[in-house]
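Troubleshooting log. The previous structure file for this entry was overwritten by mistake, so regenerating from the original sequence record. Sequence copied from the archived sheet and checked twice against the printout by T.R.
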Amino acid sequence: MPEQIAVFIDFENVARWAEEAFLDFELTPLMEYLQSRGPVVAKRAYGDWSRFSHYRDDLMENVIDLIQMYSVRAGKNRADIRMAVDALEIAMSRPQIDTFVIVSGDSDFGALVVKLREYGKYTLGIGPRNITHRLLVKSCDEFIYLETLLGETASVTEQAATDLEMARILLVKALQAHGQRGDVPVLASRLKQTMLSLDSTFNEANFGYSQFKSWLEDNADLIKLYVKDLQLYAAPKDFVDSSDPTLLEMATPAVAPAPAAVELAIGEHYRQLYRRLKMDAADFATRRDILRDIYRALNEQPYHYTTDSLLGELRDRYEAQGLGRSKTLLRSVWQMGFRQRAFDYGDQAASMRVPVALAPGIASEADFVRLAESGFIYAVINAGLPFDPDALAAVLLNAPDQKDYILDIVTGLEAEGLIVKKGGRYHLPGSLPIPFRNEPALQRLARDIAEVEVPENIPRTPERAETLAKRAMIQRSQDFSASARTYLMACRLQWDALETNDPNASLEDLRWYMASYASVKAGELSQVQRDYAGSTPYYLAFFYLVQEDDPLWGRMRGLINPMLSYFWANAGRELGLNVSDWNINAISPAQVAHLAANHANPELRKRWETRTRALGQVNSDVLYRVIDQIRHNYGDQPDYLTLAERLTTLLARG
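Regenerated output below.
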């Protein structure tokens, strides 16, 4: 039976940090990770909910018990004591709960963790890397940094090379410990437990791996891997092969999968894609019901609602009807239409916070539903995945025999010129499979990619591009310039693979590489070469690619706040002003904006405004998030509220 889990969240501690680091705190990825480990039977969050009411939907969707802790002006946060009392009470009264999860960075919970371990409980700590006290980390059986879990589970874009090397050293030490006991080859699961006992912060997810097995395979230069009775074993590289005939080294060629397994793999690719795009939350009937309600509301009252207000009204209506449809679920369905340009925002930039209507040309409810559901097909084509109508019908309709519905959508899209077939594969409109090639905000990146000269000995394949991108991640912490060059080569290889219709080439990966390149190139120009004006197009390209309703948002969310802070601070650096006393690495973008917008130098204020207006033209939602952050965190400070109004005005002017 899977281990039962109890989770206790010091909400104020982690939510405040997340808002400063990422502009918001998404609880769902954290809970999804915990649920993947076993049934979470007790879920409690502690905080002053009058201050965190905007997290209502996320908390309700995850069925978390809210424990009210009233704020006081003096004294320590009382959540510490209440959490400790509740955790110990559950440990003593519910012995079937094996694992206790403490989500906080506060060192005061170290004593609680030690006591829980005395009671024989497995303790998992989760907290932000830069504010979690080392005492808490060392006290836990296992500790995972919260940055790893936010955004896409087990998907991390940046990791210091030193951390990676330390993990490799840890692997060798753990194998040596087993070798001294004559316990090699050792079962991989036992090896990981040994590594955790040596360093509770080890987690393969920190390096972008969803499975320990995959991480071991990528460190095969240090170890040998074996399979026995369908279980994975590991041994040191110098291990002399055992005479056990049932112990097979992993180097043995794998048996080719059966055709059914191949079809399953294609379907799983689709499911993973839809999960990343948040398109998998609703079943067929629920999806249709929500789409019809969206159509009726916008058809009856165009430009009356914003996305937020409409989804909020629908959520309340469904609650009154006894239907458990959260705003997160509604938003995932809305995104289907949004991606297919089924909505019109008048003369304003598309955003969840401006009035919306149906796009011109949508004449009926059937037109709207069909256009929105064609987003599933678009997502597959946009990602560069193979098109398999049987697998799509199985995934989307739970009925493989309904592939005619999928084919009808594709036929209609082709007839309307919305997709084209070239070289045996479908692409978005245009002669090239890269639809954003001529996007003005990306012209600097496109030019850089076009100028790359690829050596003859480097294959222009997506596999090689992925290898280079991984190398660039590690280089980033050591050398911006080297990382930028490596990312740029990865972009060129992926770009060429897409243009030659390589079936393994994904447009989504190209956009990821381009966003990564834009971020490191901006860092190189502004922090190394001090070319602040020259870095501006790269900052804007990054924010054009990393939109709130895009899967890149989850992958790159750890970079959003630093990029925004540096982008604004560079307005002062362009003028030769010393902004080092702003300490931008320790404050939020809202605070950086406040310093720039209220600076004594009028030219700085003007340049900040120019930069902000340009940012609003490529990504208005990131500015709306800053506005929300100001109102939630600085609502009692008049000068900050004035800043929020100023940002709103700049967005309205475009």
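Confidence is low (pLDDT under 50) at residues 151-162, 252-264. Archived copy saved in two places this time.
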